[in-house]
Design goal:
This is Antitoxin component YwqK of the YwqJK toxin-antitoxin module. With 267 residues, this protein is mainly β. The protein contains one helix and 23 strands.
């Protein structure tokens, strides 16, 4: 049952709509996929005499080996300890956790591990089944998937974490003023979605999986880049194709970040 909330609940995480300043446009992505930049990237291949230097960054070589049901799984990768914060707009940021000897996509911090940077290969026994390139933890350039006989099954292209198929619209192309980013991979919406106010402040964030809206989608007030304040949250299915699920408004806030409404947990 839905009802208005009591503002006295100080411990309520919804009591304020104000959120992290990382959503302000100082970190907005520039997504004009530049063909000239791609040509420059190809020249990078000619510089491999400088071992383990990728995109002008010194890296270290990593290796993970696992055995499961009589098969051996290998991952070869490069990683960097260079000071770099991952792009907050990218959903999957890949990093190496040396304590657990594993590659992860969530929970990265500079004190816990290292961003993948450079070439990557995954093998089953002695056959390469996946290969690609990372750029500060983000998929970059061409990625390829192979079957157990090393026959190419799929190929995809990325630019610093963004699938090249992504649909991007601009308020002003000349000034790179982005209106909307719809992430697309293999012909379906896949990844983090963003809509911007004309002044480039975040207006809407959400996530797609297999062409379906999933999780929490959030709308933000236009505060002229002074604060990031939630306007409304809409809850979608947690996993795609959950036919029995109906989206609902989870919470709303006014322009000052005061909670106006929250749907009570039915569990």
């Amino acid at each position: 049952m839905a009802q208005k909330t009591d503002d006295s609940k100080k411990s309520d995480p919804d009591s304020s709509g104000v959120v992290a300043s990382a959503l302000l446009p100082s970190v907005a992505p520039l997504l004009l996929f530049d063909e000239e930049k791609e040509k420059e990237a190809k020249k990078e291949k000619k510089k491999k005499a400088r071992k383990n230097i990728w995109f002008d960054v010194k890296t270290q070589r990593g290796f993970i080996r696992k055995e499961l049901r009589g098969q051996y799984y290998f991952e070869y990768f490069n990683y960097t300890d260079a000071e770099r914060n991952p792009d907050p707009y990218i959903r999957d940021v890949y990093w190496y956790d040396p304590k657990e000897k594993a590659i992860k996509t969530e929970g990265y911090s500079k004190t816990q591990g290292y961003l993948l940077h450079g070439p990557y290969e995954r093998l089953v026994n002695d056959v390469v089944v996946e290969s690609g390139m990372f750029y500060y933890g983000m998929k970059h350039k061409t990625w390829m998937l192979f079957d157990s006989k090393n026959v190419l099954q799929d190929k995809s292209h990325f630019s610093e974490g963004w699938p090249k198929e992504s649909r991007i619209s601009y308020y002003n192309r000349a000034s790179n003023s982005i209106e909307e980013i719809i992430p697309v991979q293999y012909g379906l919406e896949e990844g983090n979605y963003f809509h911007f106010h004309e002044n480039q402040q975040i207006a809407v964030t959400g996530e797609y999986k297999y062409g379906e809206k999933v999780g929490l989608w959030t709308e933000y007030w236009d505060t002229q880049n002074t604060k990031a304040i939630r306007k409304r949250e809409i809850q979608y299915q947690e996993e795609p194709y959950t036919k029995s699920f109906r989206p609902y408004i989870r919470a709303e806030w006014d322009k000052d970040g005061n909670l106006l409404y929250r749907k009570e947990n039915l569990n």
